[in-house]
């Protein structure tokens, strides 16, 4: 990289995007300090530790291992220098909330549909998965192969030419070379229409669309381009870093420290003053001065709370009119005994999930028949729970901005635990020894997220690529942004790449 020797940078927020940016800037010679509001680094990828139980509070899927390998290789290192990976088998398990028969009497495991609902394991064995698809719909195995080939093509072209290259202007897309690379990509249409062109069975459509939860969208509002996510989970695989996602955060932070980054936790930023060469970031423990500032705090919070009105790139109406990814209702549970019916990653899906998405994006309310996700790291990692116990959390996507009272949480907690018992055969209610809850108001207070969204701006067609807010501040020279609200978008791998793109902007301007 070009040199930033002599430049000082304050990074506000120690999420994965901020930590990534800090590594790149320190490697270029800058004096980098990360100031983090909360007591630990990681942002939404924080840890919760209680009474011998350990939970990843946010991200729990290790996807796109190639992105992490590329990141560490930039610094002549590998992920294994900091953490080890286990390939999960199954990648994930799906329970459907019905008892409908398949066309074959046996499922992939040699057992018929369970009385409490139909179950599918998606494994690293593609031939086995194709056979499962064929049981639901004649010809679906071959259709899956064609779908994944298209997904692989979109992934390889999209990552090389549209993710790692930050095309922020319309003219970047009119270039003949860009048009040639984009030829054949699924740029238009929705994921719903794209999946329907391959599969008729609604359950198969759901299996191909569930990855939209990682993008904060629904099948009808997410561009078909994101079918590339199926290449991510079917072909690249689902992994578990020993120690959980927190071990990845530790690894990136350790790399930063080796490069000279300093970390200052428990220090909320309250105002950004100044411009290039003369910034003063006010914090609750006094000011921090620097030549440049990178904000990994939520974009709307940075502009609306840390900058005066004349220094904002967007007004309040802009943020109010955006489409936001869901928030979540989370239960972190320590339970006695095993939960063998649940895999490390388990999804529970209603037969018709349109109502759930409508209750998030169209008519916001607490879903009455929710789709949800259970994560049981103790199925893979013995160190996350005391002996004889299991650690798990349950995540229900809900609309941001809903009323979030203790009474609502009590009611929803009972609904979800009853639903798990009914649809997976796992009754947790009499075995819970530890329980913590986290929901909309907590996302807003802990992470300063707009409306309590868990992820930020959703990946709708009008909020993808150049339509997301830029890495450079529109009004303040020397102020930059990184994280899920910028390009390339939501998710740990994308935020890791966002750190590289932001660093490139800083280097273009000051290197």
Automatic annotation (TrEMBL):
It comes from the Archaea. Keywords: Carotenoid biosynthesis, Oxidoreductase. Gene3D superfamilies: FAD/NAD(P)-binding domain. The gene is crtI. GO terms for molecular function: oxidoreductase activity. It comes from Natrinema zhouii. InterPro entries: Amino_oxidase (IPR002937), Carotenoid/retinoid_OxRdtase (IPR014105), FAD/NAD-bd_sf (IPR036188). Transmembrane segments: none annotated. One of its GO terms (biological process) is carotenoid biosynthetic process. PANTHER family: PHYTOENE DESATURASE. Residues 16-507 form the Amine oxidase domain. This is Phytoene desaturase. Pfam families: Amino_oxidase.
């Amino acid at each position: 990289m070009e040199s930033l020797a002599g430049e000082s940078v304050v990074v506000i927020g120690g999420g994965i995007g901020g930590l990534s940016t800090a590594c790149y800037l320190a490697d270029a010679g800058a004096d980098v300090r990360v100031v983090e509001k909360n007591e630990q680094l990681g942002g939404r990828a924080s840890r919760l530790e209680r009474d011998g139980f350990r939970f990843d509070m946010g991200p729990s899927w290790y996807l796109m291992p190639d992105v992490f390998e590329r990141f560490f290789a930039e610094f002549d290192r590998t992920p294994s220098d900091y953490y080890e990976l286990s390939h999960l088998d199954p990648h994930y398990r799906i329970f459907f909330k019905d008892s409908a028969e398949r066309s074959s009497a046996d499922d992939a495991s040699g057992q018929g549909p369970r009385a409490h609902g139909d179950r599918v394991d998606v494994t690293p064995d593609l031939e086995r998965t194709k056979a499962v698809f064929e049981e639901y719909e004649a010809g679906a195995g071959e259709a899956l192969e064609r779908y994944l080939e298209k997904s692989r093509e979109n992934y390889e072209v999209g990552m090389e030419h549209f993710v790692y290259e930050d095309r922020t202007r319309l003219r970047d897309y009119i270039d003949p070379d860009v048009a040639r690379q984009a030829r054949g990509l699924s740029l238009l249409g929705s994921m719903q229409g794209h999946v329907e062109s391959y599969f008729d069975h609604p359950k198969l459509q759901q299996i191909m669309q569930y990855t939209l939860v990682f993008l904060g969208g629904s099948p009808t509002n997410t561009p078909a381009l994101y079918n590339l996510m199926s290449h991510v989970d079917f072909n690249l695989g689902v992994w578990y870093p020993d120690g959980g996602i927190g071990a990845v955060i530790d690894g990136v932070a350790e790399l930063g420290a080796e490069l000279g980054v300093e970390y200052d936790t428990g220090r909320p930023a309250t105002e950004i003053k100044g411009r290039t060469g003369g910034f003063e970031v006010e914090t609750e423990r006094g000011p921090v001065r620097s030549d440049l500032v990178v904000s990994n705090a939520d974009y709307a919070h940075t502009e609306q709370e840390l900058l005066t009105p004349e220094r904002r790139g967007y007004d309040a109406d802009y943020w109010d009119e955006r489409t936001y990814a869901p928030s979540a209702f989370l239960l972190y549970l320590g339970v006695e005994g095993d939960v063998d019916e649940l895999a490390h990653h388990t999804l529970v899906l209603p037969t018709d999930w349109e109502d759930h998405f409508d209750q998030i994006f169209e008519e916001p309310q607490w879903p009455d028949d929710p789709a949800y996700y259970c994560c049981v790291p103790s199925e893979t990692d013995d160190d996350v729970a005391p002996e004889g116990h299991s650690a798990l959390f349950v995540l229900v996507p809900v609309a941001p901005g809903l009323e979030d009272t203790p009474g609502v949480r009590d009611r929803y907690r009972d609904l979800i635990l009853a639903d798990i018992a009914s649809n997976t055969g796992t009754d947790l209610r009499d075995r819970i020894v530890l329980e913590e809850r986290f929901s909309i108001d907590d996302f807003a207070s802990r992470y300063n997220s707009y409306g309590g969204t868990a992820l930020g701006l959703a990946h709708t067609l009008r909020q993808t690529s150049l339509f997301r807010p830029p890495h450079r501040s529109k009004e303040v020279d020397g102020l930059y942004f990184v994280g899920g609200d910028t390009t390339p978008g939501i998710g740990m791998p994308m935020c890791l790449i966002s750190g590289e793109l932001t660093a490139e902007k800083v280097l273009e301007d000051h290197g």
